[in-house]
């Protein structure tokens, strides 16, 4: 076996287990297998030059910003991620406190510190609380159909819109207030799209919606970066377990394979890599992303998977969550502000529209989360996923849920970017030189999407004219 970039020593006799994919699933699996009494020989084949998958923390600008996974949801004793983080000393006193672990969130995102309408005016927090209470109650009721014999409608989105229409019939306010209330509710719909990883709640089936288990605990972050978790897992593995830059081409299974280094021994599985390297094994664990399986299903397994497994891969859906970071010379938000909600006034969850996404993608943004201050720098953020971050002075990070340009995230982290240019973005090793935005700040858009070969994760520079009024107001305030 001769992987590119150097040789990989063939293991001796004994049980061989290969793990395909070095994200958190693959790392967690191999760490646990290290404790197996059979003492198997373990090897992880990772397509890229780094482990961790979508867990990626940037530290090159005076602080920590998560360009991938961000929170521990439900940080309590029943959460294995929380247990590992506590074991490795990666959390602070507040995150480890019993009080924090006992908080019941119901799986709902916390209320915003302030809410802005797209015209720039402030939305009453009393109104936001009223509508959040309504929406969260409807989400809780949607989960109750888990064991029902039948559901009133097929999807969560249809159920929510049906119930919103019923409540709206009893609203006594003027038309302008009713429209604002619908716009606020639409913001909560967008939040739920981020939580559920979908472009629309109409795509989420109502019957199994309650399967998701909500753990207690107030969502928390890693003070030193989420990547500390994967770094500690990596350090616990035997030497030479990880093999990087080793994308897998085909997994040949249900066969009988041999290798020259082990005469007389046969293996039921052979993993063939794109560079020609071949790894025989007794067992293979496949931990690649669903999007990668969807794209490569016809060639990744030989013979093909059983029909029921292939059908499950094709039918299971998922969406994309994206992060946007906005940077400012000085913060315009109050010192105790943590979450800024954005309400798009001309939207309603009851309107089934299919807008042209290149012109209206920003209406999928749900708001901004304030990042810790980095000395003289300040940041705001929204939610997952990937890219590069320009060193901020002051910044906002915004989350966008759903499908922005098309298909799914690929396991090899190839992605296309939203913008006028079709050229590949610069590699992550090159300096980011986002152009200045009037008002003293800069804005960089990070997108993860699609699996078009040759395209790499990159940044899209959003012009001031593409921003909504509230975003322009924020930039001018900065």
Automatic annotation (TrEMBL):
Family membership noted in the UniProt record: Belongs to the flavin monoamine oxidase family.
PANTHER family reported for this sequence: FLAVIN MONOAMINE OXIDASE, PEROXISOMAL N(1)-ACETYL-SPERMINE_SPERMIDINE OXIDASE
Record-level GO cellular component terms: cytoplasm
Names of the cofactor(s): FAD
Subcellular location: Cytoplasm
One GO MF term attached to the UniProt entry: oxidoreductase activity
Swiss-Prot/TrEMBL keywords: Cytoplasm, FAD, Flavoprotein, Oxidoreductase
The Amine oxidase domain, residue ranges: 24-339
Pfam families named in the record: Amino_oxidase
The protein's name in its UniProt record: Polyamine oxidase
Tagged with keyword Membrane: no
Sequence segments annotated as region (Disordered): 419-446
Major subcellular location class: cytoplasm
Natural source organism: Equus caballus
Compositionally skewed regions (Low complexity) per UniProt: 420-432
Keyword Oxidoreductase in record: yes
């Amino acid at each position: 076996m001769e992987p590119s970039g150097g040789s990989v020593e063939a293991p001796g006799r004994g049980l061989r287990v290969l793990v395909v994919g070095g994200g958190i699933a693959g790392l967690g699996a191999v760490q646990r297998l290290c404790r197996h009494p059979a003492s198997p020989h373990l090897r992880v084949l990772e397509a890229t030059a780094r482990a961790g998958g979508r867990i990626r923390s940037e530290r090159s600008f005076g602080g920590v910003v998560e360009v991938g996974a961000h929170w521990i949801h439900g940080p309590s004793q029943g959460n294995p991620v929380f247990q590992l983080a506590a074991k490795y000393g990666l959390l602070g006193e507040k995150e480890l406190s019993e009080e924090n672990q006992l908080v019941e969130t119901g799986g709902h995102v916390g209320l915003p510190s302030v809410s802005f309408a797209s015209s720039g005016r402030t939305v009453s927090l009393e109104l936001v609380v009223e509508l959040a209470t309504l929406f969260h109650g409807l989400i809780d009721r949607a989960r109750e159909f888990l064991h029902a014999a039948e559901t009133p409608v097929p999807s969560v989105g249809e159920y929510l819109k049906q119930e919103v229409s019923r409540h709206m019939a009893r609203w006594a306010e003027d038309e302008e207030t009713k429209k604002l209330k619908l716009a606020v509710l639409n913001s909560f719909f967008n939040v739920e799209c981020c939580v559920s990883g979908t472009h629309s709640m109409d795509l989420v089936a109502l019957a199994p919606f309650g399967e998701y288990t909500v753990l207690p605990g107030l969502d928390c972050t890693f003070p030193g970066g989420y990547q500390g978790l994967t770094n500690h897992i990596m350090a616990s593995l035997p030497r030479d377990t990880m093999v990087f830059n080793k994308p897998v081409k085909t997994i040949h299974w249900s066969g009988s394979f041999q290798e020259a280094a082990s005469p007389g021994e046969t293996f039921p599985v052979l993993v063939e890599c794109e560079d020609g390297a071949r790894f025989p094994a007794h067992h293979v664990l496949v931990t690649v992303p669903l999007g990668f399986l969807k794209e490569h299903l016809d060639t990744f397994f030989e013979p093909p998977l059983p029909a029921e497994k292939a059908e499950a891969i094709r039918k299971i859906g998922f969406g994309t969550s994206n992060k946007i970071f906005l940077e400012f010379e000085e913060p315009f938000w109050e010192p105790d502000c943590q979450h800024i909600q954005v309400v798009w006034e001309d939207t309603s969850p009851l309107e089934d529209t299919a807008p042209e996404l290149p012109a209206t993608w920003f209406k999928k943004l749900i708001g901004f989360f304030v990042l810790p201050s980095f000395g003289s720098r300040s940041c705001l953020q929204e939610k997952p996923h990937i890219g590069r971050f320009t060193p901020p002075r002051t910044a906002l990070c915004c989350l966008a849920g759903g499908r922005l340009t098309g298909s799914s995230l690929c396991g090899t982290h190839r992605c296309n970017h939203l913008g006028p240019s079709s050229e590949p973005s610069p590699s992550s090793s090159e300096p980011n030189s986002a152009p200045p935005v009037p008002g003293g700040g800069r804005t960089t858009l990070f997108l993860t999407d699609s699996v078009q070969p040759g395209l790499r994760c990159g940044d899209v520079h959003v012009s001031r004219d593409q921003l909504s009024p509230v975003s322009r107001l924020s930039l001018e305030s900065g």
